[in-house]
TrEMBL record:
It comes from the Bacteria. InterPro entries: Ald_DH/histidinol_DH, Ald_DH_C, Ald_DH_CS_GLU, Ald_DH_N, Aldehyde_DH_dom, Aldehyde_DH_NAD(P). Pfam families: Aldedh. One of its GO terms (biological process) is aldehyde metabolic process. One of its GO terms (molecular function) is aldehyde dehydrogenase (NAD+) activity. This is Aldehyde dehydrogenase. The keyword NAD applies. Keywords: NAD, Oxidoreductase. The keyword Oxidoreductase applies. The active site is at residues 218, 252. One of its GO terms (cellular component) is cytoplasm.
Amino acid sequence: MLYTSQALIAPEVVFARQRRAFLAAPMPSEEDRLRWLDALRDVLASNQPALIEAIAADFGQRSADETLLAEIMPSLHGIRYACRRLRRWMKPSRRQVGLAFQPASARVIYQPLGVVGIIVPWNYPLYLAIGPLVDALAAGNRVMLKMSESTPATGQLLKALLAQIFPEDQVAVVLGGVEVGRAFARLPFDHLLFTGATSVGRDVMHAAAENLTPVTLELGGKSPAIVSASVPLEEAAERIAFGKSMNAGQTCVAPDYVLVPRDRIEGFVAAYREVVQRFYPRLTDNPDYTAIINTRQQARLQGYLDDAQARGARIVPLFAEEQQRRMPHCLLLEVNDQMRVMHEEIFGPLLPIVPYGELDEALAYVNARPRPLALYYFGHVRSEQQRVLEMTHSGGVCLNDTLLHVAQDDLPFGGIGPSGMGHYHGHEGFLTFSKAKAVFIKQRFNAARLIYPPYGKWWQKLIYALFIR
């Protein structure tokens, strides 16, 4: 196995090496960047079984198909997308120069920022490392990845694989626990991207502020799904269940609660139960059902259940069995805002159902809470779809689906407010990790001399009359 123990290197030592290397070659060519991306694609494609095995080892049980669909496939697609568009992204863009400033020209050039830090969470330890890594490399940067201590096997494997194709002063993987993570966040990166909990995001942003390091925060929050009064319940239930059951709900854009018309709740519960039990006929020894990452997270989820039940919620378990950390999928009815499950991100297979009357009531419920990372609306009436889009704020939206907006390389991914700031993926990722440098160019003739002091000349008055109006 490749994911055996390796020596830990202090983050500040790696950072200093990368900084020196960047200063020696601050503008990598298109050929260099394509070579990096091609090598990354090849090493991922040729080590798929090892990656599946490492992630499964970290989770205790991780569906191999979920790793293929949600980690390996989008990583490879993202690399391919960037390679095909890199030349266009790197090309300087021409900009207009006002008549008063002619003759001159203007353009924007896109320069690498320098050394980029990426803090990777445990829930998708491959894709949430490779996705921003691809964007940062496409932009020409040096990159340091801090892997989660909750996924040691994946961290060790990715460290070994990337060391095969990149020198440490180009791409480096940093391993270690909480203290290493804190030291990592305090480094004077040229940009820092963090994916994880909102509470930790505040600490990361505070640490970055000491160096005025710009940050992209990909957080989470409580992403709602709204079921309309007319959408077929079987259709909505199936698509919501797919988004909630993927990775056992341990997804930052998983539906966190569902708003359902009061008179459709029982029908939705029946349809949802049928779908989940069709997806997973059993829990015991089912290779398709992913475990909760560790006992600490399982205890947190069980605490949500116990608290909700003590405060009056009706728990509807969809399975009677439980095996190790394969936590049964549960619906929660008759919930209220005093329950922890209704104001903390769930990140697991628990799904509260909230009743509503008219669509405006559902939108008001969403808008009264912190802005989510994703919002899902199920309904085919175009005017209602447009109303949801215009009257709510969220990082992204799916109409009649869940999760899949994240897999679109041509769509930016990012939160808003408590669910994050900044974007990456595709062209937006290239721009996030680039400096768009404004360049104004003038040659020998200098018409601007007409506005140099001393002031009060007749031609200056004419210029004011022509251009200040």
